[in-house]
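Running log. JK asked me to keep both predictions on one page so they can be read side by side. First protein, sequence followed by its tokens:
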Amino acid sequence: MAKILNCCGGFVKTILAVSLLLIVLAGCSPVRGQLSAWQGARLGELIAQVGPPSAVSSDDAGTKYYHWYEDRGGVYTYGGQVNLKCERTFGVDAQEIITSWGWSGNCLALPDSPWQRNSPGAE
């Protein structure tokens, strides 16, 4: 194992370090923190803060899913253009309490974002 880690001028060590960093960052995503703060909140509080959803769907069990789509267009980086698109979804029970959440895409979690829950427990 030591031979593998010392070969290639530290390239393997760098790859391992970057991989570990990405795993750690994925576990403590700012988006995850923002969305998880809404767990247990009332749907009305969320809509009052972020605006109406883009779409609503439901499953056979009666859970409603509220979807917010965001498309910020292209941003230029060192690697070229990146399109910033995101979907945030909240599952809501019959009492309009948020019971689940999720996201896909490359959501941004800015500190002043409307997705940052400011007053937990209040509506």
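And the second, directly underneath as requested:
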Amino acid sequence: MTVEFQRSTAGITKSAQRIGLVIARRLARVVGFGLDHQSAWMPQSIQLLRFAYAAVAAVFCAASLIAITTYPVPLWTLVVVVVLSSVVAGGVALLMLHADSFFFEPLVILLPGLTVGRLLSTTWLIPAGQPAPRLSVLILGETGPGVPLFEPLTVVLVAVALIYVLAQAHRSITKGCEGTCFSSSDWLTATLRTYVGLMFISHFTGHVLAGPIPFDAFVGYFGKVGMPLPEASVVLAGLVEITVCVGLAFGLLTRIVAILGTFYLLFTVWIGGHFSIGYSWALPEGGWEFPVLWAFLVALFGIFGAGPISLDARLARRSATTT
């Protein structure tokens, strides 16, 4: 009885596995992540995602330009949004011209797009001469109401970009790509490096791009913690953050910008008094837990480099082929 039961159970299990595998294959073909790596649908799926990303980015550009002409924003924020929206539009053109774009062209859209999204969704866009709300310095500098509906639009842009890049990563890992393919560890390195670089966007937008209200708030904060020449210090902080953000995201001069970013983050933890507060970031005023973790991750790229999915690696390969 027991043997017959085990045989019937094994037969049911094998049948269930076969049925599950068939269902998984069919569902995978529908969503674009198939198990049959050589099938013809994969390039078509990638192209559909590429068109979707370009369409969302184009809508994002149009919405940003409508926002700055509809809502009163500081002059320098208006100029920044126009310039960055132009870069996003250029990224869309690159994405459409290069059918095999897998990482860098999408990033040309995402980095300025995220910056515009941060500016128009979570900052105080108050023109010069108008009174600032009576809030704490860091609240004025770090957050604000922004333009209605721009935050979810930015989330959609990021989500579509992520799906497109993950689809390209899957195609590369499973050898469904043409030309150079990359391993899962290569993509892990690239995505982690890009993420820790893009984290600087939240900070440099408030320092140098969001207009007089956040800038003045940070000037007051920098003066409070003892930074000399607080106006110049805020500008310098913003420039360092932009440099590290772009360098890490694209993997350009990675070791140099990673070392710069590591020392910058540790310095801000020290000058902000976070070491004396304690470890946990949940403590009042914030401990050193989160920023030191961030500095540690950035430092890894200063030690080990950007990895093969980077402009550093691309330039090295190009130099090797020409010599």
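Observation for JK regarding the second prediction: Residues 5-10, 19-41 have pLDDT under 50 and may be disordered.
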